[in-house]
# Entry
Amino acid sequence: MDISLEQLNEIDEIILQKGWGDLTNNRGELINSITFELFERVNDHEEFVLLKSLIKRYFLCTEYDQFCFKIAKHIEDLFYNEPIIIIPVSDKDRKIKSGHAVSYDLTRFLDDDKFSEMQILESLDSVSNRIADFNIIVVDDFVGSGSQFRAFVKKCAASYGLQAENVYLYSIAMMAKARERISDFCYAAIPMVEFSRSLSDPSELDQAIDPIQVYGRIEARADVGRNYRRGFLRSEALVTMKKTPNNTLPIFWCKHDQHGKLWPAIFPRG
# Structure
């Protein structure tokens, strides 16, 4: 589809409104340039309208520190003079994950004098015989499907006898669907920002357009693995934190098109 001058101006206005005009992605590419390249992949007006709507709703976290500060103040207020443990969500191999960045930043903003005891840990091994004495505050920057958090709590329950009523999950951002999936695994899930699914849930998009069907036409031109269609577990996220999670619609991060050529990924994962 040839993009008209009027449409170019529409795209440019969205980029300026979002403050992306001078930003680069993790490959050093100007976001505005790659955005225009992605729009060049649309074939018709419906696809143009949908992609424009997705870009408008995209959440690029440029205020990471401020969100971590907000989480810290919330924790201080809620758990004043109580014992707490801050621990990042991790997988079975304990690899460095996004939650580690949040837990590290919280060390800058939390005042340990506000609590009767505060520990920031990578594992609960050292307090395994005192688990019930603490409020366990699990942190992550983004919760897309909730699967990793559920697995983490199950593992801690089996290893240390951790009870869901002692667990609190804090995140910068969270999908509303994920909150539903983890409701039985913690006492409370507290995101600073919460998002609905970008295609399946109601939006202000023109009702004449079927978002899933139209999006599927665009995604079909990209090299997307079966498990990541519409984002991991069909999360339909529009989120980039320090990295772009695989829950985000893959047209924004995949590497190649169906012919093996580079895909214009605005926010590549790495």
